[in-house]
Amino acid sequence: MAYSAASIANAFLNHAFAEGKSISPMKAQKLVYIAHGYALVECREPILDEVFEAWKFGPVLNTLYHECKYFGKDGIPRLLDDFDHDTGTVKKAPIPTDPKVAELIDFVWQTYGEERAADLSDWTHEKGGPWDQVTDGGRKILRHQEVPNDLIRDYFFRTMYTV
Questions:
Q1: What pTM did the predictor assign?
Q2: Which letter does DSSP use for residue 78 in this model?
Q3: How far apart are CA 120 and CA 104, in angstroms?
Q4: Which of the pair, 62 or 137, is modelled with greater confidence?
């Protein structure tokens, strides 16, 4: 069930384009992070084929950052590409067709799609959250430092099921 970061981002972009809305690269990162967190709890497995890294501005998927960095703070104007390692070609990243993943993405879009990117980013820096734990509150940022899935899963479990 693991997809590329671009595939999951494209599912959110598809929603945004259909509704005449815009998603910045930062918002795409955060929506994909949230979807991944919910998937770790609800599906009990990752929906991504790569891991989040603890960057200065929160959890980041390296490939998604590099695919979107040229858009700056503007909205992403098109669906994103994937590099096909088998053929050595670039192609549009396919939107996931797995019904569980599609339902999860729909839920995250309906729940968080209207949120500002900065607010979503603040949430990913929350004290006690995975990024905060890995970076010691942002004091220890290391290059390519992984944010482990078990920390993300446990955090989302607490967030989802704490009244």
A1: 0.94
A2: S
A3: 17
A4: 62
For the chain, what percentages of helix, strand and coil (3-state, to nearest 5) are there?
50, 10, 35
- Percentage of residues in the chain with pLDDT exceeding 90? 82
Q: Which two tokens stand for residue 88?
A: 């050595």
Which residues lie closer than 8 Å to 49 by C-beta, 6 or more apart? 2, 3, 4
**Residue 58, amino acid:** G
Inter-residue contact 96 to 25 (CB < 8 Å): no
Nearest to 134 by CA among 65, 29, 64, 60: 60
Q: Which helix (H) or strand (E) holds 10?
A: helix 5-18
Residue 48, strand partner residues: 3
Burial class, 42, CB count within 10 angstroms (exposed 0-12 / middle 13-18 / buried 19+): middle
